[in-house]
Amino acid sequence: MALTMASTLELLRKHHQLREVIQGDQWTLNTPKETQSSKPFTDITYDTRQAGPGSLLFCKGRFLPEYLDACDPEGPQAYVAQQDLSAHTKAPGIIVNDVRKSMSLLAAAFYGHPQEQLTLVGITGTKGKTTTAYFLHAMLSRISGGHAALLSSVDNCLDGRHYQESQLTTPESLDLFRMMRQAADAGMRYLVMEVSSQAYKVDRVYGLTFDLGAFLNISPDHISPIEHPSFEDYFYCKRRITYNSRQLVLGADARGADLIRQDARAANVPVTTFGDGTRQADFLVRKAPGQGDDYLIGPSGGAMRPVSLSMDGDFNALNAAAALAMLTRLGLEPDAAAVRAMESVRIAGRMERFKADNRVVYVDYAHNKASVTALLDFVDERYGERKPLITLVSGSAGGKAIDRREGIVSAAQNRVDRLILTADDEEGESADQVDRQMLGFVTNPSLDASIVPDRAQAIQQALGDPGLPGERLRVTLVIGKGEERWFKTDSGHVPYEGDDHVVARLLGTESYDLGATGAAQG
């Protein structure tokens, strides 16, 4: 059914969002006299540059009244805001209690509630969201014959075949419902998506219920004046997925797992747990006997399935256990073909390995204490007996997640031989400021720590010259940017070659795991 002024007001009243409608001197709870109540909106947007005749414009976030000057002279048809903007437009203003919640409700209606045509899976956690989403998506795609969509922090797939780079981990609600409509219209039956803490903080998924939710883990991250003011707020936002899912898969070893179980009981949401056996869990992962990288994954007390992943690390095996647990909770059988699809998944910038002479390089998106710790644990397990020279190349994004900076240093400084601090995103803060702050967190006097502002030069310095046969193994970890081809700055995106491309160029080799394309697969 088309979204009109009348149906908009009715929906907002139903959800206790409508305050009043203002047009000129008219203040009313109904459609203003000069406005057609039954005329459908032709599009919805939160960008004034796209608001023309027939548009419903949402004035959200740091919206300034003068932005309305950029609108088409004939539009918008109406606007939704938390304040009266009638001094800047002749369009009727729908004044609401919360514009973000209202936008989510109205976007769902405008796009015909596409979530009802899809089996929705939402995945949250501090680390592992992307990999777990790719693992599950690969299996669902194989089982459904390609009828599975994906929304991730790396890229999005809405038709089961084509991938496009994503802009946000979880899109704005208006974009999210538009994408779900595209997926449903393309014949998709499943949609797997990452759900960030910000998605709940700013109501990007307001009113959305997941058929299956997953809470992988939690550790301090995204704590800053512009994100979450405290770990409590960050954890609370993550936990909200429990109340908005019909069933939940939970990491048994997750910090705060007992509290999440209490949430689930309060919401009458059944819980399935996964883990490595450290704590009791419904789904387990164990190292397979022998010296290889194979694992055994399966239900506790049941048959364990051998799994050989293309992505290194015990943490990725745990992500695979989560994906298999989720698949079974969806009522699907992880047959051999589905497991092979998961085993073949590789993601550019996630544990992407390069090898040349006595040098091994990993390009990874690790960007906080927990992920750096997990990465170094992997290096110890894989290469520890060879006593390698370990170099970490890292920066940290400016203007946000300030706690990450000390976390990266504290996780690394007693476990690496060299720390090279370098450029990262600069939003409200220069890379030099961030790097100097991180250097100040170094307390280990034996650590070789330095700042090399140019990221490509930092990587070049870390790799050094080719070694002679028999020389000590050198392991270089280039973290934080993954496959990203740009730096974010206050003035926009600045192109960057990409960590993986820099490493490949300097070593004269392609990625050991992904090949020359470096494209995400699965």
TrEMBL record:
Mur ligase central domain segment(s): 123-326
Keyword field contains Ligase: yes
Residue ranges crossing the lipid bilayer per the database entry: none
Database matches in InterPro entries: Mur-like_cat_sf (IPR036565), Mur_ligase_C (IPR004101), Mur_ligase_C_dom_sf (IPR036615), Mur_ligase_cen (IPR013221)
Keywords: Ligase
SUPFAM superfamilies on file: MurD-like peptide ligases, catalytic domain, MurD-like peptide ligases, peptide-binding domain
GO terms assigned for molecular function: acid-amino acid ligase activity; ATP binding
Domain Mur ligase C-terminal positions: 349-464
Name this protein carries in UniProt: UDP-N-acetylmuramoylalanyl-D-glutamate--2,6-diam inopimelate ligase
